[in-house]
Amino acid sequence: MKKIAILVMLSLLCGRGALAASWSEKLGELTDFVVEDIKDIRCMHRYDVYVPFYAWHNRLFYDREHLDKYNEHAWGFGLGMSHYNAEHTWSGIYAMGFKDSNSYLETYFGYARQWNWTAGSHDEWRAGIGYTLGLTQRHEYAYIPVPLPLPLIGVGYKRLNLQAAYVPGIKNDGNVLFVFSRFEF
To answer: pTM for the full model?
Structure first.
């Protein structure tokens, strides 16, 4: 995080051309990193089952009319592959489908990375933060894939994990905490 802040500050000091080049370079590095991580997942993986189950609509951003009509029981199912590296960082690729806020099918296909802190005699407990990058498909967009990068948090014990992503938004749209469980095989 400090490196990113320093790069942004240096880029701003060096002018617009340097800023554009720096961001383009960093985006290329991130893309290369994600591609390599996905290759690692495919080679050294375990299988995961996802069970989405809750979509909490942030009460600070919704009026009662919308809250009354929205579904918060986002039941669904998903499958994925993932791995942990030596630093306990989890990475995964996955696909899941679930009931959205309007009770229609929504799908999400993505890549995720979560940096974890561990505890316990065999690092059985974990908590972490990260991100997910993916494509979602929703009824109101005629199921056309839409990119949706999201922040991610999670806690886990042995092979059971509880994770959540926050969908930012505006008044009466977005601002949803999407909660799902993940079981590692």
So the answer is: 0.84
66 is catalytic: no
With beta carbons less than 8 A apart as the criterion, state whether 97 and 74 touch. Answer: no
**Which residue in 37, 48, 82, 100 is the catalytic one?**
100
Domain extents in the chain: 2-40, 46-184
SS3 96: strand
Copy the structure tokens of residue 32. Answer: 């290369």
What would the mean pLDDT of 60-84 be, rounded to a whole number?
97
57 is catalytic: yes
Judge whether 45 counts as a catalytic residue: no
Determine the pLDDT at residue 123. 85
CATH number of this structure's domain 46-184, picked from the four choices 3.40.120.10, 2.40.128.110, 3.40.630.10, 2.40.160.20:
2.40.160.20
